[in-house]
């Protein structure tokens, strides 16, 4: 059932070109120039007229939500807030019937997310679910929703569910922007064509980086700390990379927006600190270049995720992992794959139980 892989996690990492394609199947129709999603189509007005969209989730799903905020605000220009379900439910949040809540949950059973949904519904908000497990509690309690269709995720560390969530959020953001006129026809076509190419690019990443990442991992098995840095859309990718490492290898790791480095974490940097920096040639690339210079001036060990052919960051980094180019908004899907593999290989070399890390459960049904 592990399909020849040593662990479910590795199998699920390698399934991602297929699972992302499954998420898009029947929904992203490039030739017809449309995005077809029943859950969204049935409630287009409700969604595009929302005064505010509030995304609630926990853990990895919350990281997907942060990227969802960037996507929806950029393409649909609807204000978005992202909250941990556990905070939202207990802080008496301001929420009205003009708000739309998007709840994201792989398992569809997370207790805090469930309680946050109930609260939002009581206050009259329209609640849209993004779940992976079909017919799960959250899928049933929400007003509408979309399944991610990533297939069963057995490894406790979420991998393919995360990239599927990013795919759904991309589809929703582009669809809403197309509908409310914030996204012109040409941009819409460019984005859906780019998104359509993602499964092939995931395959390219999986084929080209596996042995590179495994080799890098072997050099950091005894590290006690890691920093993960990224900017823009890849700030949440950095958070997710750090979470993957923490939960399965038990190495302390923190994710930060790269520019926040000088507000504190830079004090941690010395020759013993590995820093994973997500640096594709997009967005604020020149800023990332100066972040890498600042790290190298303090002798930090840089593991950089860059685009193929990049030389500027490559010439300064201690280790490089190359991924294909794509639009900034889709780059977290590609960049998170080497981060999953890095956490996986480090954990395996440390002898950790990667599929069932200590103290963790696949569905957190208690708060
Ligand atoms: C991380 C992980 C957890 C879950 C979190 C939410 O790899 O698996 O952080 O993401 O418990 O779970 P769901 O998405 O099922 O609500």
TrEMBL record:
GO terms for biological process: amino sugar biosynthetic process; carbohydrate metabolic process; fructose 6-phosphate metabolic process; protein N-linked glycosylation; UDP-N-acetylglucosamine metabolic process. It is found in: Cytoplasm. This is Glutamine--fructose-6-phosphate aminotransferase [isomerizing]. Its main location: cytoplasm. It comes from Epilithonimonas hungarica. GO terms for cellular component: cytosol. The lineage of its organism: Bacteria, Pseudomonadati, Bacteroidota, Flavobacteriia, Flavobacteriales. The chain holds residues 251 to 617 of 617 of the full protein. It catalyses: D-fructose 6-phosphate + L-glutamine = D-glucosamine 6-phosphate + L-glutamate. Residues 43-182, 216-357 form the SIS domain. The active site is at 362 (for fru-6p isomerization activity). Homodimer. Its EC number is 2.6.1.16. Keywords: Aminotransferase, Cytoplasm, Glutamine amidotransferase, Repeat, Transferase.
